[in-house]
Amino acid sequence: MSLRFTRLWFCALILLLCRAPLSRAEDSPADPPAEGPPSPFGLQVGVSYLAPATLHGSSGDVSRTTALGQFELGLPPVGEKLFPRLFVNGGTLQYDFSGRSELSPTGRSPWESIGLVGAGIAGFYAIEPKWGLIGAVNLDAAGESGADFSQALTGGGFVGVSHEYSKDLSLGFALLAQTRLEDNPIVIPIPSFEWKLPFDDQRRWTLFFGGQNAGPILGAGTGLSFQATRTLATSVRLSGFGIGGEFRLADDGPVPDGVGRDSALPLVVDVAWKPSSAVQLGAFAGVNLFGQLELLDSDGHRLARQRVEPSAMMGLRLSISF
């Protein structure tokens, strides 16, 4: 399995989980290069912080602290071409609302502590040296403390194809399908590419679009990376926060069994350092753009939608393979 296909395979995992604002680090265009196929075991943990951001048109603001992790287990290959992999993830999002806004007209926080847990299986199938298929299925739960677990479940799937057009250019296309809380399922076509720019003979600059797993989130977006050394890389990237970032609310909260949604478009500078083949450290800082929070009742009717003004964000992540 080539390095380029390995990267696109991990993009499949990322896109499948992109509704959750995770912080993780595996191989991506901005990361130091890997050697060989993925390790049998992988552990990624990350934390991020969104500084207090003003809720547009009100005296209220909101901040968010995120801590999440993911464990991956490589399964034995099926034949010589199919490489399956299991993954489980979980964590928490802590929101801090202050003041009054459309979301909290009485000053009471619409939600506070959100728990996330998920699991799934992904696979890569090598059609030939330059072509491959990627796919995955997942089941996730996202809910506030006190929410009904069965009402916090969503699931989905992902299928795509990747092609190594040349040693400097790889292309891909995929479809992501995901159920939503109190809304219709969503299907998203996702093109992707990774292009090592030709003006640099050492091919240290890479322009990419598609799945991303560096910075504050898992999601899709675009960016430009620079491979400074064998162990150090940096990038500037614009990333989608995911498919709504939604979660079920507590049954004893201001909106019993309602739904909260959090979306944004972060612009970050990301640095990745890989001191050994088994360990990678990363850090990022930037600004959260085009933020929006929504509050829905238990029947899916929108009660409030609030724009979030740009705010600083930062975070750290650690990846260990063994």
Descriptive overview:
Residues 1-29 and 213-218 have low confidence and may be disordered. Helices cover 4% and strands 61% of the residues. The chain is built from 1 helix and 16 strands. With 322 residues, the protein is mainly beta. The protein has a 14-stranded antiparallel barrel.
Summarize the structure.
With 322 residues, this protein is mainly beta. The chain contains 1 helix and 16 strands.
Approximate helicity band: under 10%
Computed over alpha carbons, the radius of gyration is: 19 Å
Mean pLDDT: 83
Backbone structural class: mainly beta
What is the 3D form? globular
Query: How many individual helices?
Result: 1
* Total strands: 16
N- to C-terminal distance: 18 Å
Uncertain regions: pLDDT < 50 for 5+ in a row? 1-29, 213-218
In order across it, which strands form the biggest sheet? 1-2-3-4-5-6-7-8-9-10-11-13-14-16
| Proportion of strand residues | over 45%
Biggest sheet record:
14 strands, antiparallel, barrel
- Could you state the order of secondary-structure elements as H and E? HEEEEEEEEEEEEEEEE
